[in-house]
Amino acid sequence: MDTASTNHSPHLHVLHDVLTAATYEASSAMSVWTGGKISLTLDCVREVPLESISEEFDLGMEPLTMVVLTIDGDAGGTMILTFDEENGRGLAASLFKQEVSTDPEWTETEKSALMETGNILGCAYFNAIARLVQAEFVPSPPAFLQDYGPCVLEQALMLQAQCSYDVLICQTTFLKGEEKLNWHILFIPNPKIGDALQSAQ
User: Fold this and answer.
1) What Rg value do the Cα atoms of the chain yield, rounded?
2) pLDDT in the model for residue 45
3) Which of 93, 111, 133, 148 satisfies CB 3.0 to 4.6 Å to 196 for a cystine?
4) Which of 79, 87, 82, 41 is nearest to 60 (CA)?
Protein backbone atom coordinates (compact mmCIF):
# COMPACT_ATOMS: atom_id res chain seq x y z
CA MET A 1 0.00 0.00 0.00
CA ASP A 2 2.71 2.43 1.00
CA THR A 3 5.97 3.44 -0.60
CA ALA A 4 6.49 6.48 1.60
CA SER A 5 9.90 7.67 2.66
CA THR A 6 11.13 9.40 5.81
CA ASN A 7 14.39 10.84 6.96
CA HIS A 8 16.03 9.40 10.08
CA SER A 9 14.39 11.52 12.83
CA PRO A 10 12.78 9.13 15.36
CA HIS A 11 9.49 11.03 15.52
CA LEU A 12 9.17 10.87 11.73
CA HIS A 13 9.24 7.09 11.84
CA VAL A 14 6.47 7.14 14.43
CA LEU A 15 4.44 9.61 12.41
CA HIS A 16 5.10 7.57 9.26
CA ASP A 17 3.65 4.47 10.93
CA VAL A 18 0.63 6.39 12.19
CA LEU A 19 -0.05 8.00 8.83
CA THR A 20 0.39 4.71 7.00
CA ALA A 21 -2.47 3.31 9.09
CA ALA A 22 -4.45 6.53 8.64
CA THR A 23 -3.95 6.42 4.88
CA TYR A 24 -5.24 2.85 4.79
CA GLU A 25 -8.35 3.94 6.72
CA ALA A 26 -8.77 6.99 4.51
CA SER A 27 -8.39 4.90 1.36
CA SER A 28 -11.10 2.51 2.58
CA ALA A 29 -13.37 5.46 3.36
CA MET A 30 -12.71 7.00 -0.06
CA SER A 31 -13.50 3.70 -1.75
CA VAL A 32 -16.88 3.62 -0.03
CA TRP A 33 -17.52 7.33 -0.71
CA THR A 34 -16.66 7.06 -4.43
CA GLY A 35 -18.16 3.63 -5.13
CA GLY A 36 -14.80 1.88 -5.30
CA LYS A 37 -13.27 4.29 -7.83
CA ILE A 38 -10.63 6.13 -5.77
CA SER A 39 -7.79 4.98 -3.53
CA LEU A 40 -4.79 6.77 -2.06
CA THR A 41 -1.21 6.11 -1.01
CA LEU A 42 1.18 7.86 1.32
CA ASP A 43 4.17 9.21 -0.61
CA CYS A 44 6.41 10.84 1.96
CA VAL A 45 6.84 11.98 5.53
CA ARG A 46 9.87 14.21 5.87
CA GLU A 47 11.34 17.45 7.08
CA VAL A 48 12.09 19.97 4.35
CA PRO A 49 13.99 23.27 4.65
CA LEU A 50 11.53 26.14 4.65
CA GLU A 51 13.14 27.82 1.64
CA SER A 52 12.76 24.60 -0.40
CA ILE A 53 9.02 24.13 0.07
CA SER A 54 7.98 25.74 -3.21
CA GLU A 55 10.47 23.60 -5.15
CA GLU A 56 9.67 20.35 -3.33
CA PHE A 57 5.90 20.66 -3.73
CA ASP A 58 5.28 22.37 -7.05
CA LEU A 59 1.68 23.50 -6.76
CA GLY A 60 2.06 25.62 -9.88
CA MET A 61 0.97 29.19 -10.43
CA GLU A 62 -2.58 28.42 -11.54
CA PRO A 63 -5.44 28.78 -9.05
CA LEU A 64 -6.35 25.52 -7.30
CA THR A 65 -9.50 24.29 -5.62
CA MET A 66 -8.76 23.34 -2.03
CA VAL A 67 -10.47 22.01 1.07
CA VAL A 68 -8.73 22.97 4.32
CA LEU A 69 -9.28 21.52 7.81
CA THR A 70 -7.39 22.55 10.92
CA ILE A 71 -6.85 21.28 14.46
CA ASP A 72 -5.58 23.77 17.02
CA GLY A 73 -3.21 22.82 19.81
CA ASP A 74 0.26 21.33 20.18
CA ALA A 75 -0.65 18.01 18.54
CA GLY A 76 -2.87 19.49 15.89
CA GLY A 77 -2.18 20.55 12.36
CA THR A 78 -3.58 21.51 9.00
CA MET A 79 -4.79 19.25 6.20
CA ILE A 80 -5.00 20.71 2.69
CA LEU A 81 -6.75 18.72 -0.02
CA THR A 82 -5.91 20.13 -3.46
CA PHE A 83 -7.49 19.67 -6.89
CA ASP A 84 -7.04 21.24 -10.25
CA GLU A 85 -10.26 22.46 -11.90
CA GLU A 86 -10.76 19.35 -14.02
CA ASN A 87 -10.26 16.85 -11.21
CA GLY A 88 -12.30 18.77 -8.65
CA ARG A 89 -15.24 19.16 -10.99
CA GLY A 90 -14.90 15.52 -12.07
CA LEU A 91 -15.07 14.24 -8.50
CA ALA A 92 -18.15 16.32 -7.69
CA ALA A 93 -19.91 15.13 -10.86
CA SER A 94 -19.10 11.46 -10.23
CA LEU A 95 -20.35 11.58 -6.63
CA PHE A 96 -23.73 12.87 -7.77
CA LYS A 97 -23.77 10.90 -11.04
CA GLN A 98 -24.05 14.07 -13.08
CA GLU A 99 -22.35 15.52 -16.13
CA VAL A 100 -19.25 17.61 -15.38
CA SER A 101 -20.31 21.24 -15.08
CA THR A 102 -18.81 23.85 -17.41
CA ASP A 103 -20.31 26.79 -15.54
CA PRO A 104 -17.51 29.08 -14.28
CA GLU A 105 -19.21 29.33 -10.89
CA TRP A 106 -19.18 26.27 -8.62
CA THR A 107 -22.58 25.26 -7.28
CA GLU A 108 -23.19 24.71 -3.58
CA THR A 109 -23.69 21.01 -4.37
CA GLU A 110 -20.24 20.78 -5.96
CA LYS A 111 -18.62 22.60 -3.05
CA SER A 112 -20.45 20.37 -0.57
CA ALA A 113 -19.19 17.22 -2.33
CA LEU A 114 -15.57 18.33 -2.04
CA MET A 115 -15.93 19.54 1.54
CA GLU A 116 -17.42 16.21 2.59
CA THR A 117 -14.53 14.46 0.84
CA GLY A 118 -12.10 16.59 2.85
CA ASN A 119 -14.02 15.88 6.04
CA ILE A 120 -13.85 12.11 5.48
CA LEU A 121 -10.12 12.21 4.80
CA GLY A 122 -9.30 14.68 7.56
CA CYS A 123 -11.12 12.66 10.20
CA ALA A 124 -9.14 9.54 9.25
CA TYR A 125 -5.82 11.34 9.70
CA PHE A 126 -6.68 13.33 12.80
CA ASN A 127 -8.28 10.33 14.53
CA ALA A 128 -5.18 8.20 13.94
CA ILE A 129 -2.94 10.78 15.59
CA ALA A 130 -5.44 11.37 18.40
CA ARG A 131 -5.34 7.66 19.28
CA LEU A 132 -1.54 7.70 19.44
CA VAL A 133 -1.14 10.79 21.62
CA GLN A 134 -4.30 9.99 23.61
CA ALA A 135 -5.92 13.31 22.86
CA GLU A 136 -9.34 14.29 21.63
CA PHE A 137 -9.36 16.36 18.47
CA VAL A 138 -12.20 18.47 17.14
CA PRO A 139 -11.39 19.55 13.59
CA SER A 140 -12.69 22.77 12.14
CA PRO A 141 -15.48 22.55 9.58
CA PRO A 142 -13.93 22.06 6.14
CA ALA A 143 -13.31 25.32 4.26
CA PHE A 144 -13.67 25.47 0.47
CA LEU A 145 -11.05 27.74 -1.11
CA GLN A 146 -10.03 28.70 -4.61
CA ASP A 147 -6.65 30.35 -4.46
CA TYR A 148 -3.04 29.97 -5.50
CA GLY A 149 -1.56 26.88 -3.85
CA PRO A 150 1.68 28.53 -2.65
CA CYS A 151 -0.32 31.22 -0.82
CA VAL A 152 -2.39 28.67 1.12
CA LEU A 153 0.67 26.52 1.86
CA GLU A 154 2.58 29.54 3.13
CA GLN A 155 -0.22 30.36 5.58
CA ALA A 156 -0.39 26.75 6.80
CA LEU A 157 3.39 26.71 7.39
CA MET A 158 3.48 30.00 9.25
CA LEU A 159 3.42 28.43 12.72
CA GLN A 160 6.16 25.95 11.90
CA ALA A 161 8.28 28.71 10.37
CA GLN A 162 8.28 30.56 13.71
CA CYS A 163 9.85 27.56 15.46
CA SER A 164 12.17 25.90 12.98
CA TYR A 165 14.00 26.32 9.70
CA ASP A 166 12.71 22.88 8.71
CA VAL A 167 9.05 22.04 8.25
CA LEU A 168 7.37 18.65 8.54
CA ILE A 169 5.41 17.65 5.45
CA CYS A 170 3.33 14.59 4.62
CA GLN A 171 2.10 14.14 1.04
CA THR A 172 -0.44 11.71 -0.37
CA THR A 173 -1.29 10.68 -3.93
CA PHE A 174 -4.72 9.64 -5.22
CA LEU A 175 -5.33 6.90 -7.75
CA LYS A 176 -8.26 6.06 -10.00
CA GLY A 177 -7.44 2.44 -10.75
CA GLU A 178 -3.81 2.72 -11.88
CA GLU A 179 -4.18 6.32 -13.04
CA LYS A 180 -2.54 8.98 -10.88
CA LEU A 181 -4.87 11.90 -10.26
CA ASN A 182 -3.87 15.51 -9.90
CA TRP A 183 -5.18 15.89 -6.38
CA HIS A 184 -3.19 15.62 -3.18
CA ILE A 185 -3.30 15.84 0.58
CA LEU A 186 -0.69 17.92 2.33
CA PHE A 187 -0.82 17.22 6.07
CA ILE A 188 1.18 19.77 8.06
CA PRO A 189 1.48 18.93 11.78
CA ASN A 190 2.00 21.72 14.29
CA PRO A 191 5.61 22.11 15.52
CA LYS A 192 5.22 20.44 18.93
CA ILE A 193 3.64 17.29 17.56
CA GLY A 194 7.12 15.73 17.39
CA ASP A 195 7.39 15.94 21.19
CA ALA A 196 3.95 14.39 21.61
CA LEU A 197 4.82 11.57 19.22
CA GLN A 198 8.11 10.80 20.96
CA SER A 199 6.35 10.75 24.33
CA ALA A 200 3.85 8.27 22.90
CA GLN A 201 6.52 5.80 21.75
Assistant:
1) 16
2) 84
3) 133
4) 82
Residue 133 contacts residue 197 (beta carbons within 8 Å) = yes
- pLDDT by residue (tens digit) across 175-189? 888 888 888 888 777
23 contacts 121 by C-beta, under 8 angstroms: no
Domains located in the chain, CATH noted:
10-200 (3.40.1550.10)
pLDDT at 4: 46
Residue among 103, 86, 82 nearest 146 (CA): 82
Report d(CA 195, CA 135) in Å as an integer.
Answer: 14
Whether the CB-CB separation of 26 and 121 falls below 8 Å is answered with yes
pTM of the predicted structure, to 2 decimals: 0.79
Question: How does strand 77-83 pair with strand 63-71?
Answer: antiparallel
